[in-house]
Amino acid sequence: MSNQSPFGRKPQSQPTLPKGDVLGTYETYVEAQSVVDRLSKAEFEVKQLAIVGNDLKTVERVTGKLTYGRTAATGAASGAWFGLFFGILLFLFSATPQIGFVLAAALIGAGFGMLFGIVTYSLGRRRRDFTSTHQVLASNYQIIIDPLLTAKAQDVLAQPDRPTA
């Protein structure tokens, strides 16, 4: 007896693409997500759905020039947060809690973060002198559904939206 469902899901170690019918194709992930949300609100078995992004592209948007000042500020900020976390732990678990623990830990963290940021930037300076953000975008998104549930899902989506209270 096979553990595989008609939807193509079976216990395995390697990821596979879901198999089934295409319920719809949408330009944005938000559109596909809203269809799944609508089905969920109608008590549909959403475990039998998958949103598949097609024609994936990596987009790197350059956000600015990387300088020693920017690196120092970023390092100091992240170090301060880290120090603040440890300062709060010291404050909470100290026999004689003092707010000075928190401030000192944040300042020490900022100093070490700034130093670490500058050293790291100096070592790799000529390889990357800009900051950026990465995104993975798809050309379209398809909702894949178990073929046994396609008609039921189409019926639910054909009904007009009911306003929620």
TrEMBL record:
Residues 22-96 form the General stress protein 17M-like domain. The keyword Protein biosynthesis does not apply. The keyword Hydrolase does not apply. Residues 1-20 are annotated as: Disordered. Residues 1-16 have a biased composition (Polar residues). InterPro entries: GSP17M-like_dom. This is General stress protein 17M-like domain-containing protein. Keywords: Membrane, Transmembrane, Transmembrane helix. The chain crosses the membrane at residues 71-93, 99-123. The lineage of its organism: Bacteria, Bacillati, Actinomycetota, Actinomycetes, Micrococcales. Pfam families: YflT.
